[in-house]
């Protein structure tokens, strides 16, 4: 019965002990960050990675297919580029607002907007990479008996890979950044703790969430650099 407070006694919640850094609202309280990692930062980080990977993957599939078609049908390159550029120039919040009446405050709304921002970057990167393949290389390949499909798969796409990887890097870093704004639509991703911290005087949550978003962009970019070096070993001996 000792755990039950006598009737009439005040019930004071136990919030635990805070460090001096937390009490003084220091610039960054490492102990608080470690304590809150599993509940306040790890889940939003995973959600953020999930949002970025899905958006870039879908954007790559759409833009890559559109670029291949536009490369073969030259007249499609202009109109496709204009549409993709128009979607890219829309402010993220405005695009979210336009989509919400149709898809609601859902992850689908966020993903549609994020995909839209990746299209023009990847489309232009693929198209530029394919266009940069020297004509004499293509003529030599055709002279060796390669048909159009073999020329694309064995010659043009491998030579366009550095440009494609560069486009993917830019699109991925941009998506990591724009995904933080998604917190205005869904309570998910690193934008969620950032948005909550904006209305709080406590510094550590704001700094930690922002730093994680920046770090995530560097990690994604570094991984794509490594993938690019693995897929294009010939570029390392050019310099």
From TrEMBL:
Pfam families in alphabetical order:
BPD_transp_1
Q: Which PROSITE patterns match?
A: ABC_TM1 (PS50928)
SUPFAM superfamilies in the record: MetI-like (SSF161098)
Compartments, record wording: Cell membrane; Membrane
Signal peptide (from-to)? none
Which parts pass through the membrane?
Answer: 49-70, 82-100, 112-133, 159-186, 206-228
GO annotation (BP), single = glycine betaine transport
Its topology with respect to the membrane? Answer: Multi-pass membrane protein
Judging by the UniProt lineage, the source's domain of life is: Bacteria
Keywords from the named record? Membrane, Transmembrane, Transmembrane helix, Transport
Give a Gene Ontology cellular component term annotated to this protein: plasma membrane
Domain spans labelled ABC transmembrane type-1: 45-224
Q: Which Gene3D superfamilies match?
A: MetI-like (1.10.3720.10)
Q: What is its main location?
A: membrane
Protein family: Belongs to the binding-protein-dependent transport system permease family.
PANTHER family found in the cross-reference section: GLYCINE BETAINE/L-PROLINE TRANSPORT SYSTEM PERMEASE PROTEIN PROW, OSMOPROTECTANT IMPORT PERMEASE PROTEIN OSMW
| Descriptive protein name | Osmoprotectant transport system permease protein
The scientific name of the source species is Brevibacterium marinum
């Amino acid at each position: 019965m000792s755990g039950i407070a006598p009737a009439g006694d005040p019930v004071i919640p136990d919030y635990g002990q805070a460090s001096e850094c937390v009490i003084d609202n220091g610039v960054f309280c490492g102990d608080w960050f470690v304590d809150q990692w599993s509940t306040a930062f790890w889940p939003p980080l995973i959600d953020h990675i999930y949002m970025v990977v899905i958006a870039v993957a879908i954007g790559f599939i759409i833009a890559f297919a559109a670029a291949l078609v536009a490369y073969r049908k030259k007249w499609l390159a202009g109109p496709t580029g204009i549409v993709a550029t128009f979607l890219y120039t829309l402010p993220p919040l405005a695009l979210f607002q336009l989509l919400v009446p149709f898809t609601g405050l859902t992850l689908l709304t966020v993903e549609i907007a994020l995909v839209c921002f990746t299209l023009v970057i990847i489309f232009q990167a693929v198209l530029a990479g394919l266009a940069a393949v020297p004509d004499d290389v293509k003529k030599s390949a055709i002279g060796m008996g390669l048909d159009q499909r073999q020329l694309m798969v064995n010659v043009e796409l491998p030579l366009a890979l550095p440009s494609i990887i560069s486009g993917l890097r830019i699109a991925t870093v941009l998506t990591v950044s724009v995904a933080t704004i998604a917190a205005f639509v869904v309570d998910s991703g690193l934008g969620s703790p950032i948005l909550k911290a904006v209305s709080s005087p406590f510094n550590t949550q704001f700094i930690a969430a922002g730093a994680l978003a920046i770090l995530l962009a560097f990690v994604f970019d570094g991984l794509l650099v490594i993938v690019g070096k693995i897929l294009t070993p010939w570029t390392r001996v050019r310099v």
